[in-house]
Design a protein that fits this description.
binds flavin-adenine dinucleotide; 8 helices; about 40% helix; alpha+beta; four-stranded antiparallel beta sheet
Length: about 290
């Protein structure tokens, strides 16, 4: 049974997910590409808008509902009840965390160029930190991708992988080393890189069990990829500070979405167990201890 919801917004999200998202997920067995990829995202976004549940976390000036962190919990949980739900509401990783970062750090021009289209669902984005060994992973200070200062900007070289949403993303939020050595606790800068940046290439999809995240989890290479000075996000060498600002709250919102997914998994399991008959009895009355 589902508990009574405390807010009309949570109720609306639940109704939207049950009526428009779950049937699609079931039909295509949780595979977003088979369901239609970006074109199905367009349809889901439009319906989410009709229900008044689109971009609940995004700032008001970017077309969102401006919910704070605590208010997001119930909404994100209901969206997470379907694997496609977060995508439909524009609260899926990595976009949701990227919006949070841009909202806090972007200049007005960057806000206009990157946050506005992301929050309004015009583009998707990617966050590029993790690298093949011996680069950044659980230890981000191992970061090896470099950004070298040139006239009017920076040139990025390196390789990333497990970059969620990379295939089809409109832009990449990329971490690269601007000073120090791999292992240094500082010296990393964040760059905003449109997907069409020369030298930026989505090389392949890394195989994972997940089929519900649009754009996969990809390997991405940077070969002399130029970033103009105005696309540096925040201060040079301040990247790890912003990464914490990005990744900390994103752990909480992952948990919100996954609470919904866990609830659904439990409901599916209970429904199955309650109806399964084997050895002449319902499984709820059957077990090693009762034999
Ligand atoms: C589905 C998926 C999506 C992802 N999306 C993104 C994304 O969008 N952007 C992005 O940048 N990254 C992404 N990642 C990468 C993710 O952030 C990394 O996998 C994570 O940081 C761990 O890094 P790693 O895989 O290199 O593991 P490792 O660094 O190799 O660590 C593996 C395990 O060993 C442990 N370990 C490592 N060293 C030690 C030690 N010295 N002592 C004890 N234990 C140790 C770690 O704690 C960890 O449990 C994604 C990963 C997955 C699986």
């Amino acid at each position: 049974m589902i508990a009574e919801s405390p807010t009309p917004l949570v109720d609306r999200v639940r109704d939207f997910i049950r009526a428009h998202v779950l049937p699609l997920e079931d039909e295509f067995d949780g595979d977003i590409e088979r369901a239609g990829g970006d074109s199905v995202r367009e349809k889901l976004k439009a319906t989410a808008r009709e229900f008044g549940v689109f971009a609940p976390h995004a700032p008001l000036d970017c077309g969102g509902l401006g919910l704070g962190m605590a208010e997001r919990a119930g909404v994100f949980e209901e969206a997470g009840y379907s694997l496609f739900g977060p995508l439909a509401l524009n609260i899926a990783a990595p976009d949701e965390g990227n919006m949070h970062l841009l909202d806090h750090v972007a200049t007005p021009a960057q806000r206009e160029a990157f946050l506005q289209p992301l929050a309004r669902g015009v583009v998707r984005s990617a966050f590029a930190m993790t690298e093949p060994a011996p680069g950044a992973g659980s230890d981000p200070t191992a970061l090896t991708t470099t950004a070298t200062k040139v006239s009017a900007g920076w040139v990025v070289n390196g390789r990333k992988w497990f970059i969620t949403g990379a295939d089809g993303a409109g832009f990449f939020i990329t971490m690269a080393r601007t000073s120090g050595e791999p292992g240094s606790a500082g010296g990393v800068t964040i760059f905003l890189m449109p997907a069409e940046t020369g030298g930026l290439e989505v090389v392949r999809h890394v195989g994972t069990v997940d089929k519900a995240m649009l754009g996969g989890h990809c390997e991405v290479s940077f070969a002399d990829a130029f970033v103009p000075e105005e696309n540096v996000l925040g201060g040079v060498d301040e990247g790890f500070r912003y990464a914490k600002m990005r990744l900390g709250p994103a752990r909480m919102t992952h948990v919100m979405r996954w609470t919904g997914a866990a609830r659904r998994a439990q409901e599916v399991a209970v429904r199955h167990v309650a109806n399964r008959e084997a050895f002449g009895a319902r499984s709820v009355t059957w077990g090693w201890s009762s034999r």
